[in-house]
Amino acid sequence: MRRVGQLVQSTTTPGVMPLPGGFAGLYRLFQSGKTYRDPVLVSGTDGVGTKIKVAQLCDQFETIGIDLVAMCVNDCLCTGALPLFFLDYVAMGSDDPILTESLVSGIA
Fold first, then answer.
1. In 3-state terms, what secondary structure has residue 105?
2. Cβ–Cβ under 8 Å, residues 51 and 64
3. CATH number of the domain at 2-107, please?
4. Distances (CA, A) of 100 to 17, 33, 67, 103
5. What is the C-alpha separation between 73 and 44, in angstroms, rounded?
């Protein structure tokens, strides 16, 4: 899981605050280097649906992470928002560190 942590760290931007334990995401809006006239935080969540079945057939899971980020970012962009942070959730029937690393690599 150390490699997954390194992938996550590679996505850090100036507004991201470190948090021991990592069970929540903290973001300093005004330390992002941007100025906002009337700030509103926009967040979106989505899933990859049946694309996971195609990924399983191809044994290629990094693309699932890429698709997931694209769908979530697009949902925020269509409101005029600038994507500042990403919240993740990975659910699996059993622990598979290699698959997890591939998914997170696509997300990162």
1. helix
2. yes
3. 3.30.1330.10
4. 24, 32, 15, 5
5. 8
**Would you list the DSSP string of 34-96?**
---SS----------TTHHHHHHHHT--HHHHHHHHHHHHHHHHTTTPPP---------SS--
Closest CA to 90 of 78, 74, 102, 81: 102
Q: Which residue bears the tokens 């700030």?
A: 39
As given in the structure block, the two tokens for residue 62 are: 């990094």
Cβ atoms of 90 and 103 closer than 8 Å: yes
What's the token pair of residue 54?
Answer: 């195609």
Which H or E run contains 77?
A: helix 62-77
Query: Token pair for residue 33?
Result: 């280097």
pLDDT tens for residues 45-87?
888 888 889 998 998 888 998 999 999 999 999 999 988 888 7
Greatest pairwise CA separation for the chain in angstroms? 48
pTM exceeding 0.90:
no
